[in-house]
Amino acid sequence: MLKMLVKYVMTLTTWFLLSNNAFATTYPFESSVVLHGKIMMIKSLHPSAQFSGGKQPAIVLNQRIIVEDSNGQIKTKLIQLISSNHILYSKLFKNNGKNITVTCNKLFRAETAHHTTKVICNVNRVQYQ
């Protein structure tokens, strides 16, 4: 009986540790967050030939996150970075492959054809490491 109980507990522990969401942090959409990862350039999937294939900065997160609202959850490890601050935005392109900490004013769902990932970060601040 004790052996069965130990085996059951070990099975549950293994399942928990291997679960995709075991260590994922959940954030609400429209919230301000700090993310850690590496800058990567992704290809635009825009349907117009003018924009298709263009480079867009994104962050590959060190750890998967879950972003949710009343429309459901999105589990992701890749988030497109945007900013109205042109100096900050252009520096992202020059630092491709570097580790960063990004402060997002908010996370939101992709809204237009210019948005390549399902979750978008409106960048407020970037710290390069």
Summarize the entry for a quick read:
The chain is of the alpha/beta class. The chain has helices spanning 2-18, 86-94, and strands at 25-28, 33-43, 55-69, 72-82, 99-109, 119-128.
Give an overview in words.
Pfam families: DUF4431. The protein is α/β, with parallel strands linked by helices and 129 residues long. 20% of the residues lie in helices and 48% in strands. The chain has helices spanning 2-18, 86-94; strands spanning 25-28, 33-43, 55-69, 72-82, 99-109, 119-128. It has a 5-stranded mixed β-barrel with strand order 2-3-4-6-5. It is globular and about 65 Å long.
Topology-level CATH name: OB fold (Dihydrolipoamide Acetyltransferase, E2P)
Strand content: over 45%
What count of domains describes the coordinates?
A: 1
Weakly predicted, low-confidence segments: none
In CATH, what is the class? Mainly Beta
The chain-level structural class is: alpha/beta
